[in-house]
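Pilot study result, target chain (158 residues):
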Amino acid sequence: MSADNNEPIHEARLWSDGQWTARVIKNEDDEGWAVAMHLDKSSEPALVGPWTMGRDKKNPKPLDVNAFNTLVKTAKEVIRRSEQQRHAELNKNVSITVDGRRLRVDMRIVPDEEGASATLRALNEFDEELACVPVAPSFRLTVDSAQTWASSGFARPR
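Predicted structure:
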């Protein structure tokens, strides 16, 4: 959006719909061009990728509505995958069998600038919590470590 009148921007090298902004930039790695997609007013781009040269083989191909829509879709997918990866890094679980009962052991890490924390939980087949203890964020949750924890009577792992 332009700062003056909140209208969408549709220029050859700059498109914005108010939420997403596509900017065609000189590719610093070679002679070509790149496109950077920014969400809202984020300083870091959500996506940077190569951009097609125009017919004159010197200047970039102008942005258009179809290219912009494709770039928005791709940038959203990149963000979604990044969020999924971050969630997987912070939330782990394994299933174990103890005394013939199936248990799920969850580990949740809470990131913090001053030091992350983590919690280990055991849940029965009805998702009822059987145990919950703090652990170091570096604790490695595996089937073996969960089995050892359950065998110890759910004592806090060292």
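One observation from the pilot: The radius of gyration is 24 Å. A full batch analysis is planned for the follow-on phase.
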